[in-house]
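hiii, so i know i said id send this last week but things got crazy w the move. better late than never?? heres the sequnce for the chain we talked about at the cafe, plus the structure i predicted for it. fair warning i was half asleep when i ran it
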Amino acid sequence: MPAVMLVAWTLFTAAVLAAHAHPTRDHRAVDDRELERRADRVGLPLPFELRGAIAERGARREGAVRAVAWGGFVIAVALGAAVHVLGRDRGDGLAGPIVFAVSMLALAAGRVIVAWRQRPALVAGAPPAARERGLEPADYSTQAEETGAWAALGVMLIAPAVAWMTLEVVPGDSAAAGTAAIAALVGAALALVAWALLRGAETRIAHRPQFAHDDVELAWDDADRSGAIRLLRRTMAAVALVPAALLALVVLELAPAVGELDGLERNAAFWTLVWAGALAVVCAIGPYLFLAAGRRNLNPSLRLWRGTDFGSDPR
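okay and structure toks below
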């Protein structure tokens, strides 16, 4: 059974990772039609001179994230397999959660590294751009997405607490459930570190100096920052899946113990597991629902340009 669980966790990890950093999508292969669609989405004109720079920035960013994330996945699978083969998991399925947690942390690391290393100027040689005020991550995102980021933090705090509470309330002698609860606590601690680093990366992007030849170029740089911050917040939701998934694992490991109970004790244990399982689902999808609502605004940075007529731009 541990081997089956390891395979299941590995497949689940690959699916989540593919949704955030697709392993085969070539971001360099961006044709004019795709660029025009992107311009329509962000609501900006697309001068010929900017096409190459916009395509290149997206390719560099996603290519680097993909390399770090999937490199981390390979390492995670090797580590999980080693733990399983060497018997360190003692039949409690620890290897699978290791694969998932390490892979999500690698995804977060990729996003943070790219945020800190990306060059400020969209076009090389552009002069510094002056803004009326300093900008913050909130200027590049929606309120729903900000709520989603905080919801991810809430998941990291709530899920391990509920896992331990469930372990205390539901009688049983499941070593696997105890290990899953410990893993939820450790995973949440690591997720909190990743969340803090991702928030720092948001600030890094928003505070980075801007360089542009004109308003259109500067507006595209703003749109790129909005997109980058949006990806950081999706990564927060992905990292929050670690404690949420481990809470679900605690529930599954304790479920067989309910059948061994009688009367009121059985009812209490049953409804505790139902409540904890439902909460695990809410923790898993909650941040994504907020982020999905925020994505209805395709380019939040446009509010920085209210009243600007880009059609009259000389380029």
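btw The mean pLDDT is 89. thought thatd interest u
miss u guys!!
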